Amino acid sequence: MSLKEVVIRSLRAMSPLTQPVFGAMLAGAQQYRELRFLLPAGQQFVYDQYLGQFRVNIDTTYPIEVEMATGSYDLKTSAVIRKLVSPDDTVMDIGANVGALTLLMAQVANRGKVIAIEPGLTPFNRLKANLALNPSLQDLVDPHQLGIADEPGTLYWQEDANVPGNAGLFSHEGLAVRVESLDEFVHQLSLKRLNFIKIDVEGMELEVIKGGMTAIAQFRPILYYETLESFRVNRGFDIYNQIFCLLKDLGYQQFAIAKNAQFLAIPNLDHLASPNTLAIPSEQVEQFIPNV
Q: 134 and 159: one domain?
């Protein structure tokens, strides 16, 4: 654990603060996002200006919700979604957690459909609670407690002891959850279109994509998937170049995400240039990235 992480944990474990003091700290974090790391854990409240319009439940025990309390989440990914998603699109958030990006997708694809998939019962219930706070989203967002993999079955959701709210499906113990392949799930939904898929499944991105090759070939969605070196190491084989090759064979061009959400074409994923990788069907590249 880095010195910065130790300091942040120590500060967040402070004794509960009085409401005026916490309110001042929260206001500071909303103005200067880096100050969010100083917010103590265990504070619970409803914030009514997430993305400028949504009401959300905040529990500062969860790092994702701490960031949501600043008014936005993952600025680079948010910029990518705003660039690539259109109002009438059907989009899918695989690994939706409590809905930080689901709500952004709903804001952007406000005449389309947002399908939010989260296997963990605790974050899924918090996702549903956030949607319930925003009745206008009832017909727009379709939430599912489900895992997505390369074949149907049962896997076990295990929360990361170091990062509350983060979890994976590689454990042999924990919460048993139903999993489906992406192809079967898309078939069950009888979708007419599928324009954009965000995949953040803690190292299981390969299985999600392998299990969705038919749907990907049919609908040609833009894919935005997490690429962290720690997951490649933990899996013990090159999950990311396998994904790269699978998508390349389907006629996708792939890009790292640079500062200001600029897209940089990449020849492979030997070296991860960004924590997420973008895959765009070749026939759509010029539409989104002129003069690539």
A: yes
Same domain, 186 and 48: no
Mean per-residue pLDDT, 42-48: 95
Task: Using the structure block, give the residue that is written with the tokens 């299985």.
Answer: 207
Q: Tokens in use for 176?
A: 């048993």
Of the residues 34, 68, 102, the one at which a domain ends: 68
Q: Based on the domain organization, do 124 and 238 belong to the same domain? A: yes
pLDDT value of residue 19: 66
Query: What is the distance, to the nearest Å, from the Cα of residue 286 to the centroid of all Cα atoms in its chain?
Result: 26
For residue range 106-138, list pLDDT tens digits in order. 999 999 999 999 999 999 999 999 999 999 999
Tell me the pLDDT tens digit for each residue of 151-180. 999 999 998 888 888 888 988 889 999 999
Beta bridge partners of residue 265, listed in sequence order: 255
CA distance 38 to 26: 9
CATH number of the structural domain spanning residue 88: 3.40.50.150
Distance between the two ends of the chain, CA-based, in angstroms?
Answer: 39
Calculate Rg over the CA atoms of the chain. Answer: 19
C-beta separation of 241 from 270 below 8 A? yes
CA-based angle 24:28:29, to the nearest 5?
Answer: 120
Cα–Cα distance for residue pair 260/223, rounded to 1 Å: 19
Q: Which residues contact 283 (CB under 8 A, 6 or more apart)?
A: 220, 251
Q: pTM of the entire structure?
A: 0.92
Say whether both 101 and 177 belong to one domain.
Answer: yes
Question: Under a CB-based contact definition with an 8 Å cutoff, are residues 247 and 285 in contact?
Answer: no
User: Quick one: 254 and 128 in the same domain?
Assistant: yes
Band of the pLDDT at 53, cuts 50, 70, 90?
very high
Task: Give the residue numbers spanning the domain of 282.
Answer: 75-288
Closest C-alpha among 289, 205, 287 to residue 247: 205
Beta strand 54-59 pairing with 175-181: unpaired
